From TrEMBL:
<protein>
    <recommendedName>
        <fullName>Pectinesterase</fullName>
        <ecNumber>3.1.1.11</ecNumber>
    </recommendedName>
</protein>
<dbReference type="GO" id="GO:0046910">
    <property type="term" value="F:pectinesterase inhibitor activity"/>
</dbReference>
<dbReference type="InterPro" id="IPR036758">
    <property type="entry name" value="At5g01610-like"/>
</dbReference>
<dbReference type="GO" id="GO:0042545">
    <property type="term" value="P:cell wall modification"/>
</dbReference>
<dbReference type="Pfam" id="PF04043">
    <property type="entry name" value="PMEI"/>
</dbReference>
<dbReference type="GO" id="GO:0005576">
    <property type="term" value="C:extracellular region"/>
</dbReference>
<feature type="active site">
    <location>
        <position position="411"/>
    </location>
</feature>
<comment type="function">
    <text>Acts in the modification of cell walls via demethylesterification of cell wall pectin.</text>
</comment>
<dbReference type="GO" id="GO:0045490">
    <property type="term" value="P:pectin catabolic process"/>
</dbReference>
<dbReference type="InterPro" id="IPR012334">
    <property type="entry name" value="Pectin_lyas_fold"/>
</dbReference>
<keyword id="KW-0961">Cell wall biogenesis/degradation</keyword>
<dbReference type="Pfam" id="PF01095">
    <property type="entry name" value="Pectinesterase"/>
</dbReference>
<keyword id="KW-0325">Glycoprotein</keyword>
<dbReference type="InterPro" id="IPR006501">
    <property type="entry name" value="Pectinesterase_inhib_dom"/>
</dbReference>
<keyword id="KW-0378">Hydrolase</keyword>
<keyword id="KW-0063">Aspartyl esterase</keyword>
<feature type="signal peptide">
    <location>
        <begin position="1"/>
        <end position="21"/>
    </location>
</feature>
């Protein structure tokens, strides 16, 4: 029997769909008002009426055909200029060709997705987020190509390249921006992050709030291998794979499909990384697990580029400073910033662990990238990035850096990805005299791009050479590379060497009112925000706003991280006490089997009292972790808990309990955010599996 509330909602939805059908036809001039460049937008559409989705599909299809045209143009110039042009111009053209190929892929996927909506109307939130991500990347590709060309082809001898290739790009960039704007308006829910319902998320098997926390550190991972693969891994790493954490059927272990080894003395499968990457299977869907490349200790002097078809590669080294990939290409020596990278990856779902990536060109060679990632769902865990200007190019798409060290000088973390740095060390170094350091130079160029750099629970300290420097160096948290530059620093330690104003202009008042820079709950002598810049785009934010830049805030979905075994924090670091106070958790709403809890405002710890028939989610762990957890559940009471951490998932708050020996126990103590009234719990599918639904008692 449907509840009256549900019926009302159904009715409202029905009425709304009628309204959509009859009232949303508009002239292009009306639709174009919502795009960044209305004047250009109007030139895109023929004079007709349509709704925003029809215009959106048209624009994306047109972007696709323009992109095909552009590839033909670049190919023509590459052929004609192969020998005539300076190498720098050829390289810039090659970048453009490479990027245009990727752009085609992104636009094609986007078009196929929106094309389906002519029959199936709506997109799920994650799918809409995927397309917004791809269209954001397509736009960044145009800019990357344009910038490379402008730098390389600055002399009059190369004006044909500029006119022939760079000029059409200007309009294409505008067209892509229109596509992104219309897609965002037509398909992306306005308050997608907050307004989502957990049951509206198609979960791939494991639902988010039943995942146990992972407590691995320093590059350790819960890998699951065949006997043969395991033997190779264990003999090389001199480490035993940990057993007993689970059998992997619930996704708690990370499956490895095969292993190849890179050993410089010739006793492994390969002596260099490039050859090993070549052996990885093409275009796997990951269902068989990751292809593991074990790179043993050594200095690898090679330029590695992992092409888009080498999906699901996991590269493990022997540790930071042990396995080192090094190179020294730079802009001064005739490379573009883009192709100066020592190590570059485009393949989705790439994971690197325990490796140092270097560019040793030095500060006098200006832009010289150590690592560039344009790989969707790429993760770097316990890695080090060492260079000077432009060390780490987080080009675009979705990325996570966990427990990494990043060394550099000018703009040393830059690009336009949606990227979170968690528990990392950022080390500004000594630049050239008269230079200043900027830790970030985020490159968001369009208000509809869903990108940004988030730095969470990191440590910002000077590198040794900066400490010992015999001249004064100013260090800033960041500066706006592009108009809508977006960077958030939260829960991090900022040492006193960072300038009190915090942030630096790029050029006059460029971007100062369109950028978004924010700080939240940082510590350390450099974290005092009293004397910070007063730009319109600078903010000291609260936890609600900061939540938009956590893993679940920025990425919407975190399954891709979970599947790699890499530990991560999905929300902000709140204690259980913070959460319960903040959201005024009604005592009546408790997980099934939880009778009551105590909160300690001093420590933030809480104790949970259970009855003996607790079925969710304890049961899961009874099965999986019985030997460990049983010791802690006695007479319906969980005790001797060492730490407490809290995940804020959409509007669910899962309060996770960490037991003293490193094993994990998570209790979903369902609580509501402001937008989610307690009454709505009754509609949750978790009813009967975690929550008393029929007997909800509300104390507020
Ligand atoms: C777009 O959808 C139509 C049917 O609605 C189909 O015939 C066409 O092949 C689709 N195009 C692409 C590129 O998927
Ligand atoms: C760019 O688009 C505008 C408006 O449609 C047009 O007038 C102009 O000629 C185009 N420029 C190029 C180089 O195609
Ligand atoms: C990375 O190195 C650390 C420290 O040597 C080690 O504990 C960890 O297991 C390594 N990770 C992997 C996946 O081998
Ligand atoms: C790698 O080397 C091992 C041991 O020499 C061998 O069994 C395996 O087949 C090799 N793998 C590949 C992909 O060559
Ligand atoms: C990498 O090793 C392969 C053979 O395994 C060899 O053919 C190739 O030249 C090597 N590349 C470099 C850059 O050393
Ligand atoms: C992957 O595809 C390339 C061509 O793109 C081919 O040369 C190579 O042999 C393939 N590798 C594997 C492991 O199938
Ligand atoms: C790696 O080596 C550098 C330079 O010697 C040193 O500063 C750094 O602490 C080392 N990193 C680790 C994690 O050992
Ligand atoms: C934050 O980083 C510190 C190391 O700097 C680490 O000890 C702590 O556990 C981290 N907190 C979280 C919630 O990961
Ligand atoms: C500063 O130190 C550098 C070496 O790092 C040295 O070459 C230079 O002469 C020193 N300059 C001064 C003014 O002491
Ligand atoms: C900020 O972090 C501190 C711990 O470093 C914590 O005590 C405090 O409650 C946090 N503030 C907010 C607003 O979350
Ligand atoms: C921050 O700086 C201002 C001005 O220098 C000072 O008055 C204030 O006490 C500082 N706050 C903290 C928490 O140190
Ligand atoms: C956080 O700040 C925003 C403004 O940026 C404000 O709208 C919101 O109400 C604040 N939330 C809380 C819980 O204070």
């Amino acid at each position: 029997m449907e509840s009256p509330l549900l019926f009302l909602i159904t009715l409202l939805c029905f009425l709304q769909s009628l309204l959509v059908a009859s009232h949303n036809l508009s002239k292009s001039s009306t639709i174009c008002k919502t795009t960044p460049d209305p004047k250009y937008c109007k030139t895109v559409f023929p004079h007709s009426q349509g709704n925003v989705q029809q215009y959106g599909r048209f624009s994306i299809r047109k972007s696709l055909s323009q992109s095909r045209k552009f590839i033909r143009t670049v190919d023509k110039y590459l052929k004609r200029n192969a020998h005539a042009s300076p190498p720098a111009v050829t390289r810039a053209l090659q970048d453009c060709r490479f990027l245009a190929g990727l752009t085609m892929d992104y636009l094609l996927t986007s078009f196929e997705t929106v094309n389906e909506t002519s029959t199936f109307k709506t997109l799920s939130f994650p799918k809409a987020d995927d397309v917004q991500t791809l269209l954001s990347a397509a736009l960044t590709n145009e800019q990357t190509c344009l910038e490379g060309l402008t730098t390389a082809a600055s002399s009059s001898a190369t004006w044909t390249v500029r006119n022939g290739v760079a000029l059409p790009l200007v309009n294409d960039t505008k067209l892509f921006s229109v596509s992104l704007a219309l897609f965002t308006k037509g398909w992306v829910p306005k308050k997608k992050k907050r307004a989502g319902y957990p049951w509206a998320h198609p979960s791939s098997g494991t639902s988010t709030h039943t995942k146990p926390f992972r407590l691995f550190r320093n590059g350790a991972l819960p890998l699951k291998m065949t006997e043969r693969t395991k033997a190779v891994y264990e003999s090389l790493s001199r480490r035993k794979l940990t057993d007993g954490a689970g059998d992997g059927d619930d996704g708690s272990m990370v499956l490895i499909s095969d292993i190849v080894t890179v050993i410089q003395d010739g006793t492994g499968n390969f002596t260099n990384i490039t050859a090993a990457v070549g052996a990885a299977p093409n275009n796997t869907d990951g269902s068989g697990g990751f292809f593991l490349i074990y790179v043993t200790a050594g200095i690898y002097e090679e330029y590695v580029s992992i092409a888009k078809n080498k999906r699901y590669v996991m590269m493990i080294g022997d540790g930071i400073n042990q396995t080192v990939v090094t190179g020294n290409r730079s802009v001064v020596d005739g490379w573009t910033t883009f192709n100066s990278a020592t190590f570059a990856v485009t393949a989705p779902n790439f994971v690197a662990v325990n490796i140092t990536f270097q560019n040793t060109a030095g500060p006098e060679k200006h832009q010289a990238v150590a690592l560039r990632s344009g790989a969707d769902f790429s993760i770097f865990y316990s890695c080090s990035f060492e260079a000077y200007q432009d060390t780490l190019y987080t080009h675009y798409l979705r990325q996570l850096y966990r427990e990494c060290d990043v060394y550099g000088t000018v703009d040393f973390i830059f690009g336009n990805a949606a990227v979170v740095f968690q528990n990392c060390n950022l080390y500004p170094r000594k630049p050239m005299p008269n230079q200043f350091n900027a830790i970030t130079a985020q490159g968001r160029s369009d208000p509809n791009q869903n990108t940004g750099t988030s730095i969470q629970n990191c440590t910002i300290r000077p590198a040794d050479d900066l400490v010992l420097s015999n001249y004064t160096v100013e260090t800033y948290l960041g500066r706006p590379w592009k108009n809508y530059s977006r960077t958030v620093i939260m829960e991090s330690y900022i040492d006193g060497f960072v300038e009190p104003v915090g942030w630096r202009e790029w050029n006059g008042d460029f971007a100062l009112s369109t950028l978004y820079y924010a700080e939240y709950n940082n510590t350390g002598p450099g974290s005092n925000t009293t004397n910070r810049v007063t730009w319109p785009g600078y903010h000291v934010i609260n936890s609600t706003d900061a939540a938009n830049f956590t893993v679940t805030g920025l990425f919407l979905e975190d399954d891709w991280i979970w599947k790699t075994g890499v530990p991560y924090t999905s929300g902000t670091n709140l204690t259980a006490y913070d959460v319960v106070q903040k959201y005024k958790l009604p005592r009546g709403i408790l997980p099934e089997g939880v009778i009551d809890y105590d909160l300690n405002p001093k420590t933030g710890f809480f104790k949970v009292y259970l009855n003996n028939t607790c079925r969710f989610p304890i049961e899961v762990y009874k099965v999986k972790y019985q030997p460990i957890v049983s010791g802690f559940i006695k007479n319906g009471r969980v005790s001797r808990l060492k730490g407490v951490s809290v995940k804020v998932l959409y509007f669910w708050l899962s309060i996770g309990e960490v037991t003293s020996d490193g094993q994990e126990l998570e209790l979903s103590v369902g609580a509501a955010s402001e937008e989610f009234s307690a009454h709505q719990f009754a509609r949750s599918p978790q009813c009967g599996c975690g929550f008393y639904c029929r007997e909800l008692k509300f104390s507020s």
